[in-house]
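Tip: read the tokens left to right.
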């Protein structure tokens, strides 16, 4: 679907146009092949670059073709499984052209249709930076949700009520965070290259926007990496605790086996048809039981001294 929006510096109202006019913002969502071909033909854009925006695995990058700058980034959204995922978003900036192509719906675009938003479609550089700021802000929202999920699981770990599903959830969260990092790190490189002014014109008032955006993006990267590290530490701690508990259980079972076997050794010997010490003694049974009991007590004491139990 192709939509046309226009908003000037002097007018606070966003105009929804039926046709394109110079200075308008061309917003494309879920484009068909025909729409891609029409855009390429009408505005002399490379069709291969446009089709790259429809590749689910397209990674963030910055390219220039003539006077056109192609900025590929990835925005985060809720998947059908209600899990965070990322999808490509292409921003095309030219001398008289501003186009966004989103493979999936980008809800944050709705914010720019409100009349109280401070931007103009004729200020293409500022609009580009504001869009990228919304993308980064959306990552921060999802990162806060992920952090809360990690805190909940960590609190259950402290109370020893962690279930198998929690570690399956950890694997899912770690995959999500790695996907975030893969999308955010190249965006920092894109912002640094944009700040040079070689791809799009950078005005004095835009420099502060880029610096703030770069700072927010770096903070999101650090938050993602910190959350990944937290997950790894929790997983390693739980593995250590589980290993220690397993070793303790094995030691107790081994000790129990030894204690069960000791009486059988003595009773087995005196059950054989051979002459043994105290075999004819009237208190032989009591002696064997007492000796067995003493050996068991000594064994338990030695195990305790050696911290086996």
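Filled-in amino acids:
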């Amino acid at each position: 679907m192709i939509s046309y929006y226009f908003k000037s510096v002097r007018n606070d109202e966003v105009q929804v146009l039926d046709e394109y006019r110079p200075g308008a913002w061309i917003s494309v969502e879920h484009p068909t092949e025909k729409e891609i071909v029409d855009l390429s033909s009408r505005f002399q854009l490379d069709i291969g670059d446009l089709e790259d925006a429809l590749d689910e695995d397209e990674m963030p990058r910055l390219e220039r073709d003539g006077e056109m700058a192609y900025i590929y980034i990835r925005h985060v959204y809720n998947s059908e499984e209600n899990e965070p995922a990322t999808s490509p978003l292409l921003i095309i900036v030219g001398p008289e052209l501003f186009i966004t192509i989103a493979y999936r719906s980008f809800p944050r675009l709705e914010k720019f249709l409100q009349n109280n938003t401070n931007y103009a479609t004729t200020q293409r550089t500022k609009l580009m930076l504001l869009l990228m700021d919304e993308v980064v802000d959306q990552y921060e929202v999802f990162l806060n949700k992920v952090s809360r999920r990690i805190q909940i699981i960590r609190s259950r770990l402290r109370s020893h009520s962690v279930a198998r599903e929690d570690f399956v959830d950890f694997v899912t969260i770690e995959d999500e965070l790695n996907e975030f990092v893969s999308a955010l790190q190249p965006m920092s490189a894109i912002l640094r290259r944009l700040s040079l002014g070689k791809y799009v014109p950078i005005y004095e008032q835009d420099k502060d926007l880029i610096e703030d955006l770069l700072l927010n993006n770096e903070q999101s990267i650090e938050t993602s990496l910190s959350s990944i590290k937290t997950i790894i530490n929790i997983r390693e701690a739980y593995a250590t605790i589980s290993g220690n508990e397993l070793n303790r259980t094995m030691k107790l079972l081994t000790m129990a086996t030894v204690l069960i076997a000791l009486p059988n050794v003595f009773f087995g010997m005196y059950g054989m048809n051979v002459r043994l010490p105290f075999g004819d003694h009237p208190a032989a049974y009591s002696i064997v039981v007492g000796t067995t009991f003493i050996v068991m007590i000594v064994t338990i004491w030695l195990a305790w001294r050696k911290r086996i139990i």
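The CA atoms of residues 13 and 218 lie 34 Å apart. Helices lie at 33-43, 47-52, 124-158, 164-194, 204-269, 284-305.
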